[in-house]
Write a structure and sequence with these properties.
alpha+beta; 4-stranded antiparallel sheet; 50% helix
């Protein structure tokens, strides 16, 4: 074949000419470019384009990162134009910083890179007992992020270079005590105020609601009375616990495992000893060490001459307060319980023997061995339950590792049914009804019950396009340690408006609350108007209280905000505060009081926080200047924020 091409070059060129030229005529040169098309250009930085595909990929990474750090969070809240636009803004900012680092020729040295990697907790976890880096695990870490070790280190180096762009600005920020004092005086200012509350609860008994009122309220607020979106599903679980229960271990395997692990499973030899300690720190002067050693040598002669006196000598002379009162007794201990020098000496003695002086990091010891508890082999029958559990766990782990790949491949390759994976791996197909996109917490509990069907990644896949519209299996999703789940939707129930008959009580409570709030507001506004026109009406107000941001006197935030926003040049200042469903309040600010006596510790904290805020503001200004210099621009319009929708109410 290759000989034919080589020997008939002109013929082949003619054929290619006939094939390629017409395709240009029909599709144009741009048609070939579409093979590499990654979507429209959405932003530019320093002449470099950011396309739609890069934006989408960056947003996916951001959502995955958030989901990993907060598994219980509903990631659907990030599937909004505002959240995606915020990701684009961060992407532009990062590219601006990278371009600035390149222009400023900021580079991270090999030494700085090495220090950064050494300080990284992720890298530290890959070190072996001798402190060396486990290169295989290091490669796996890089591979999990789609990189080689070289690419990973290049990214870290780039991050270090980029960090230098703004670190100088942040580090140079400084707030003077005078600036802090001005800000703190404004923040800590106190105000004397009279507050007249009109709680909505006081008007509940005065509200009358007709059926017509209720119907009109329901028709106007149908968004409040939505059933939760849910689905009836079927699913299969591959988990190591089920595999372990299905495994039967034969007798011969148990006996072989017992024989192979007898030494490990047997009790260890233990020894009991007394000691006399004369302390001497490692860094003590030589004279002090010599004196301690001389004292130990003197005591050694005494106990060797009269071994039965060891306990009395220890009680009177040992400088180990824990054991001295017990005649130096240390009770039974095994290997690894004592410092090495002490352990080696104790395990070399015979019963009743007394050691020579032993030096350790604590000082000088004299040891008397008082008893030996020999290692004891446990019988096969006594260990049978634990042996069986160990073997089942090992075999289940191997079986799970073998089956996990088959499970993942089968639910993906035969995605229109869970029956193939069920039959192949002998797994039960289970069913669940009314699985919610966001599972609701049971009454009185802080969060939804845990379980495989409440896992955020599984719910996201179940309510994704492929599952809902194409009725495909979800991919195999790890919902716990050694637990894989795949599910598919049988029936989807979209969110829908519940009939008035089902939510009548809820609608009535909500309407009565709204009307009570309206009545409270009307009476509050009436009182406010009379106070503005008739100063005598102010005499019936409650006694004054002093409010600050630090001491709110248990007033609602809206009230505190209204009091502290009042113009100090127009006192006394009277205003009304709408508290929504809570009612209404009328406030009369009479005095502005200086902050309480200065708290030096609080001022130091305030200065530190003010410096951080100042640094953040200067950093933002510097980034804005960089964006202007590098001609960074976002080419898609910024979405206008949506008004919050009324929350769904459960029937």
């Amino acid at each position: 074949m290759f000989d034919f091409v080589r020997n008939n070059t002109k013929i082949m060129m003619g054929i290619m000419f006939l094939l390629i030229i017409p395709s240009f005529v029909f599709f144009g040169i741009e048609g070939y470019g579409r093979f590499n098309d990654q979507g429209a250009v959405v932003a530019k930085v320093n002449g470099n384009k950011i396309n739609q595909a890069e934006w989408d990929a960056a947003h996916k990474r951001e959502v995955d990162r958030i989901r990993a750090s907060m598994p219980s969070l509903d990631v659907k809240m990030f599937d909004t134009p505002e959240a995606k636009y915020a990701t684009l803004e961060r992407l532009v900012r990062d590219q601006v910083i990278a371009a600035a680092a390149q222009k400023l020729q900021l580079m991270a040295s090999d030494t700085r890179l090495a220090r950064e990697l050494q300080q990284s907790p992720a890298i530290a976890a890959l070190r072996t007992a001798d402190g060396k880096l486990d290169m295989e695990r290091y490669k796996q870490l890089a591979a999990s992020q789609g990189m080689t070790p070289e690419m990973f280190e290049m990214q870290v180096r780039a991050d270090l270079s980029n960090r230098q762009v703004i670190q100088g600005v942040q580090a140079s920020a400084y707030a003077t005590p005078a600036q802090t004092q001005v800000a703190m005086n404004a923040f800590m200012q106190r105000r004397e105020v009279q507050i007249l509350n009109f709680p909505a609860a006081d008007f509940l008994s005065k509200v009358n609601v007709s059926d017509a009122d209720l119907q009109a309220y329901y028709d106007k607020n149908t968004a409040k009375f939505q059933s939760a979106e849910s689905a009836d599903i079927e699913y299969v679980i591959l988990d190591i616990d089920s595999l372990r229960q299905s495994i039967t271990v034969n007798e011969q395997d148990l006996k072989t495992y017992y024989e192979q692990n007898l030494q490990r499973l047997s009790s260890k030899e233990e020894r009991r000893a007394r000691h006399i300690l004369i302390t001497a720190a490692k860094d003590a002067p030589d004279a002090e060490k010599k004196a301690a050693r001389a004292k130990a040598d003197e005591l050694l002669k005494a106990v060797k001459a009269k071994p039965a006196s060891f306990a009395d000598v220890a009680r009177k002379n040992s400088q180990d307060p824990g054991s001295a009162v017990k005649g130096g007794d240390l009770d039974f201990f095994g290997r690894g319980a004592m410092v090495k020098a002490f352990e080696d000496a104790a395990f070399a003695l015979k019963k009743s023997d007394i050691s020579e002086v032993v030096e350790s990091e604590f000082g000088y010891h004299i040891i008397q061995l008082t008893d030996i508890k020999a290692a004891k082999a446990q019988s096969f029958e006594s260990l049978r339950p634990s042996l069986e559990a160990d073997l089942k766990k090992q075999q289940a782990q191997r079986k799970y590792a073998e089956m996990a790949e088959t499970f993942s491949n089968t639910v993906y390759e035969q995605s229109d049914s869970l029956k193939p994976v069920s039959e192949k791996l002998k797994l039960n197909i289970q069913k669940a009804s009314q699985v919610a996109r966001v599972p609701a917490a049971p009454m009185g509990q802080p969060a939804a019950a845990k379980g495989p069907l409440n896992h955020p990644a599984l719910l996201q896949a179940l309510f994704g396009e492929a599952s809902l519209q194409k009725q495909r299996n979800t991919e195999a999703i790890e919902v716990g340690a050694n637990t894989l789940v795949s599910a598919r939707v049988i029936k989807h129930q979209p969110a829908a408006t519940l009939p008035l008959a089902e939510v009548k009580d809820i609608a009535k409570r909500s309407l009565v609350q709204d009307k009570a709030a309206e009545m409270a507001k009307a009476q509050g506004e009436q009182r406010l108007a009379s106070m503005k026109t008739n100063t005598a009406a102010e005499s019936s107000l409650p006694n004054s209280i002093v409010i600050s941001r630090e001491k709110t006197q248990r007033q609602m935030p809206q009230v505190v905000d209204a009091v502290l926003r009042a113009d100090p040049n127009k006192l006394p200042f009277v205003n009304g505060v709408d508290l929504g469903t809570q009612g209404y309040a009328v406030v009369r600010v009479t005095k502005v009081l200086p902050p309480e006596a200065e708290n030096k510790e609080l001022m130091a904290q305030a200065q530190q926080q003010f410096t951080q805020l100042w640094g953040a503001a200067e950093t933002q200004a510097y980034l804005a200047q960089l964006k202007s210099m590098l001609k960074a621009e976002i080419l898609v319009p910024k979405p206008s924020p949506e008004k919050p929708k009324a929350g769904a109410q459960g029937a």
